Amino acid sequence: MRIPSSPALQPARHSASAPARALRRFLRLFAGAGRDLAPLIGVVAFFQFVIFRQPLPDFESILTGLVLVVLGLAMFIHGLETSLFPIGEDMANALTAKASVPWLLVFAFGLGFGTTVAEPALIAVAGEAGKIAAEAGMIEATPAAIEHWSGRLRQVVAVSVGSSIVLGVLRIVRGWPIHFIVIGGYTVVLVMTAFTPPEFVGIAYDAGGVTTSTITVPLVAALGVGLSTGIRGRSPVTDGFGMIALASLFPIIFVLGYGMVS
Amino acid sequence: MIGFGEVAADLVPALLQTLSDVLPIILLLFVFQIVVLRRPLRHPGRKLIGLGYVVAGLALFGAGLESALFPLGRSMAAQLTAPDFLGLAEGEIGPPSAYLWVYVFAAAIGFATTVAEPALITVSLKAEQVSAGAIRAFPLRLAVALGVAVGVALGTYRIVSGTPLHWYIMAGYLLVAAQTIWAQRVMIPIAYDSGGVTTSTVTVPVVSALGISLAAAIPGRSPLVDGFGLIAFASLFPIISVLAYAWTASWLLRYRRRIRRREGTS
Known about the structure:
- The complex is a heterodimer of chains A (262) and B (266).
- Chain A is built from 12 helices and no strands.
- Chain A has helices at residues 6-9, 19-52, 59-82, 84-98, 101-117, 120-135, 143-174, 178-195, 198-211, 216-230, 236-240, 243-261.
- The two termini of chain A are 31 Å apart.
- In chain B, α2 runs parallel beside α9 (203-217) and α6 runs parallel beside α9 (203-217).
- The longest helix of chain B is centred in the N-terminal third of the chain and has 37 residues, at 44-80.
- Chain B is flat, with a radius of gyration of 23 Å.
- At the A-B interface, α2, α3, α4, α5 and α6 of A face α1, α2, α4, α5 and α7 of B.
């Protein structure tokens, strides 16, 4: 996940089109993505050489893949910071300043849905879940069936995050306390777990943590901060937080529901 | 280099797939820009190039995911559960205590990937400001990272022992509910959000591959029923540790003040 609120506080600076500056910026992002990966590589290397005392299997292809991951993440974040984040933040500010509540809610839903469908961590986990479901014989073991199943899973999660952002916006507008919603929500989760096939429980519980990541958090946080700054009597600190908590709760409920229905 | 040719051949369908992944958010932003705000887009060229980066980056990440992050998780799980390494006979199910290194590895991954997480650093600095000094940024980060470490380790213990996921999660949320009653009001949303903040894009694939492969490697466990859930643990336990830390910190502050006041009057 990326820094959640700093883009909202510091709008991306549009300096002159100096390619050297863009390159330097990109290199910094590349280094940043590498730094994100470093602790992981450190722990794996320690176990590989100190505990197992043998070379890492498939070392070459893993190394190639790690380079792709770092390069891909750096490009992804660079692209987000120059395109979607500034548009989304401008829009969140403009809408909270002047738009009607219904438009705001439509925007909130679309934002939650759209960012979740594009979330790399969810793409990864949904794909893996599809393969496991096929191996377990829950769905047909054809690539098309797997893709269909994981696509549907991602759509369910995306609808749930969209709904949670709608509720989050309503919560800020009306000033509802967050903990009643969260505790009530987990009570619903508990009851639903009893009626859901066990194959769905783990996936459902994981879906909550997976959705709140690189692209969802900064855009949703921008909306929360913009809203609570714009409404009298709300503080961006206490009310702007809490959106992510709802976006982690709703996917559990929706995926459990999906498991009960399918 | 092996792999690059195949990667390039995979890249075209991957790019198309990625384009359809990013399409909803792009459509939303453009439709709102034109229909609701009725304003032209500033710097359209630069933003178009940025979108190109988003799509290409996501496709590259996807390719790397398949060839690096998932295999990394799988390979660690396979080595940690190898009968030779555990000192077990082939197919023998050891007691949960035989898998000690699994828990150590899980805790180390959880701690190391969280403590340096940029998002967490921002959140903890903000929490220090809000709490008027009762919360300090670095101990807060430590609390979150310890929470993730304990969570992921306990999650792997659950996979090894085959106990139902919802017992742990529900017990955890009961604890959170109880802690919420005694927590300072400002800390509640911060603590709740810290759960979502910890699971980053590079950590999630490795941790979920670890869980799935553990469940596949341990006799009697099903990857589908037992393999998932580690991410849920990693999101829940930081809430508990942050609320615990906030409570301890504010209690200590009050305690010190009381001592000081007593010293002042006597």
